[in-house]
């Protein structure tokens, strides 16, 4: 399961929706689903199962789709 936690007050939903689609295209047959989780405080985290693929708080920026896919494929294979 992919989980994208995004900040509602920051209006990160459009980015979360876009990245959800970009992740599901190549990963749809490898994951059980994708969940969007509303949050606050500037959060933008992407996880696969219990493993965090990316945290905006740690990196200080938003993730690129390519780096998310690379990290996901490493975990799945």
TrEMBL record:
InterPro entries: Selenoprotein_Rdx-typ, Thioredoxin-like_sf. Transmembrane segments: none annotated. The keyword Lipoprotein does not apply. SUPFAM superfamilies: Thioredoxin-like (SSF52833). Keywords: Redox-active center. It comes from the Bacteria. The keyword Transmembrane helix does not apply. NCBIfam families: CXXU_selWTH. This is Selenoprotein W-related protein. It comes from Thermopolyspora flexuosa.
